[in-house]
Amino acid sequence: MKLRRLVIVLGDQLDGRSTAFDGFDPEQDAILQMEVREEAAYIPQHKRRLVFFFSAMRHFRDEQRSAGRRVYYSELDDPANRGSFADEISRWTTALQPKAIVVLQPGDWRVREQLEKLRPPIEFCADRHFLCPDETFAAFAEEHPRLVLEQFYRFMRLRLDVLIKPDGTPTGGAWNYDEQNRASFGREGPPLAPFKKSFPPDATTRGVLELVNREFPDSPGRLDDFDLPVTRDQALASLQDFVEHGLGHFGRFQDAMRIGEPFLFHSHLSGPLNLHLLRPREVVDAVVANPAGAPLNSVEGFVRQMIGWREFVHGIYWRFMPGYADQNALEADLPMPRFYWTGETDMRCLAEAIRHTIDHAYAHHIERLMVLGLFCLLLGVRPYDVHRWHTSMFWDAIDWVSLPNALGMSQHGDGGLIGTKPYAAAGNYINKMSDYCRHCRYDPRKSVGDDACPFSTLYWDFLARHEPRFSRNPRMKYPYMNLARKDAGDLAMIRKRASALKTKLTAETFL
Q1: How many CB atoms sit inside 10 A of residue 143's CB?
Q2: pLDDT, tens only, 242-273
Q3: CA angle, 304 then 305 then 310, to 5°
Q4: Distance between CA 474 and CA 197 in Å, rounded?
Q5: What is the pTM of this model?
Q6: Measured by CB atoms within 10 angstroms of the end CB, which terminus of the chain is less buried, N or C?
Q7: 179, 263, 341, 412, 489 from 429: Cα distances, Å
Q8: Helices marked H in 361-406
Q9: In angstroms, what CA-CA distances link 413 with 311, 329, 410?
Q10: What integer best gives the mean pLDDT of the chain?
Q11: Residue range 29-57: average pLDDT?
Q12: Residue-wise over 426-458: b if at least 16 C-beta within 10 A, else e?
């Protein structure tokens, strides 16, 4: 009997209640999932990222079968697997002859383009996982041509009635408590042991670990302590653990960094969210319910990331692609340094953040923005290359979230569409927010000399070379006042050292 509908479920669409399943009839419909080498190898990918995706996909397959749904599944090492979405969909549709093929909106423009070319045509379903539908974001953007996150965030708070009092004003009297969320740990360290819930691999995950080690031996990263949540139940357990044990300290210390502490009080929920194992509204509701009595600045800070920033970058991606990927407003032209793949650097902050990435396929948002991303910005790395590295190395990276964050926010490649100024800073910022500099051979207060911090050297060089673009930006007033105070001879020495650093640090690349 011919199928009525074949529902294609991609690796970041693991929700059995998504729009693609509306009207699903187990008697007439079936699911198709595919592990394909083309997707696993189009860029080098962290082993932990590959295991996370494949294991979550296989667990979803088993859950759907247990629920009585038919699932056709292409495992990576199946001899019949043709290795690409196009060829696998062709193989299965030829065999199954479905009357209709449906798929949820992919999280990657490149994948959507591939699927749009296939025949018979595939029907794309809007993804209600997101709390701001595309048409709602488009209407907001028409009304606010100069897109500003804070305006969008307030719009979403009101639209979703989150942390809003009956009279329409914000809970606590303020929309934003960011000023309370910038504390460092100081010399005494975190106020209690950081948390992270672990999930030992089951038989399914152990099989995927063997597969990835065998099929991708040269991929970056480590797998010896893989413990990520790969099922919906595990993702929900992680959410509950965060609201009970991490949320209370998340807000105040969300920008802090510490040697040997990759997770601290961050939720570690981005991976399950981005694969649709968790639904954004249930995460927001759990945080607002606040069972452990976390302070409002923590609750609001997390809500802002969820319904503000996450929905904002999703809207930006689909409104401005595909041209967004080509933007390079600062004309950065250097390649990604090789040490970003190996961690072999004597800059302690970078060595620490890259080690977290190699070991865990994870670094929290300040390490990504104000260490890893900041150095690339100051150095002048091509913004799309930064995005490719980000996608390669982080377990939670999907194109829709990585591209606006890496190319836009981190590298200012979009010329200010996402951020009104570049996130540029000298080594003193890292010294303020971490203990890295106390254990580094470089001095963040110095810009020249053998012990001068490369961040500080490159910071002044960045300001000088982009002075025509940024000197009139009101948010850059004080940096340029400080630049103007520098002696011309000193600035010349700084820029000479910056040039030498660029040559040295980009002499070797990975790709």
Answers
A1: 9
A2: 999 999 999 999 999 999 999 999 999 999 99
A3: 120
A4: 43
A5: 0.96
A6: N
A7: 16, 20, 24, 19, 25
A8: 365-367, 374-379, 383-393, 399-403
A9: 20, 5, 8
A10: 96
A11: 97
A12: bbebbbebbbbbeebebebeebbeeebbbbbbb
CA distance 327 to 445: 33
What mean pLDDT do residues 129-157 have?
96
Residue 40 to residue 88: CA distance in whole angstroms: 14
pLDDT, tens only, 423-443: 999 999 999 999 999 999 999
Which pLDDT tens digit goes with each residue over 267-291?
A: 999 999 999 999 999 999 999 999 9
- Among the listed residues 179, 215, 193, the one whose alpha carbon sits nearest the alpha carbon of residue 81: 215
Answer yes or no: are the C-beta atoms of 403 and 387 closer than 8 Å.
yes
* Average pLDDT, integer, range 328-332: 98
Structure tokens at 493: 């020495």
CA distance 431 to 453: 11
Helix (H, G, I), strand (E, B) or coil at 509: strand
Q: H or E element: which one contains 138?
A: helix 134-143
Token pair 């979550």 is found at 56
Backbone region of residue 330 per phi and psi (left: phi > 0; alpha: psi in -120 to 50; beta: other values)? alpha
Helix (H) or strand (E) holding 29, with range, is strand 29-34
Band (pLDDT 50/70/90 cuts) for residue 74 is very high
Token pair recorded at residue 130: 């997101």
Cα 65 to Cα 108: distance, rounded to the nearest angstrom: 27
Whose structure tokens read 């927001």? 284
- Residue 191's pLDDT is 76
Q: Are 147 and 417 in contact (CB under 8 A)?
A: yes
Q: Do residues 320 and 417 make contact, with C-beta atoms less than 8 angstroms apart?
A: yes
pLDDT at 262: 93
Q: Which of 64, 114, 72 is nearest to 95 (CA)?
A: 72
Q: Tokens for 168, please give them.
A: 């329409």
d(CA 479, CA 483): 6
Residue 30 confidence class, pLDDT cut points 50, 70, 90: very high
Instruction: Give the gyration radius of the chain's Cα atoms.
Output: 23
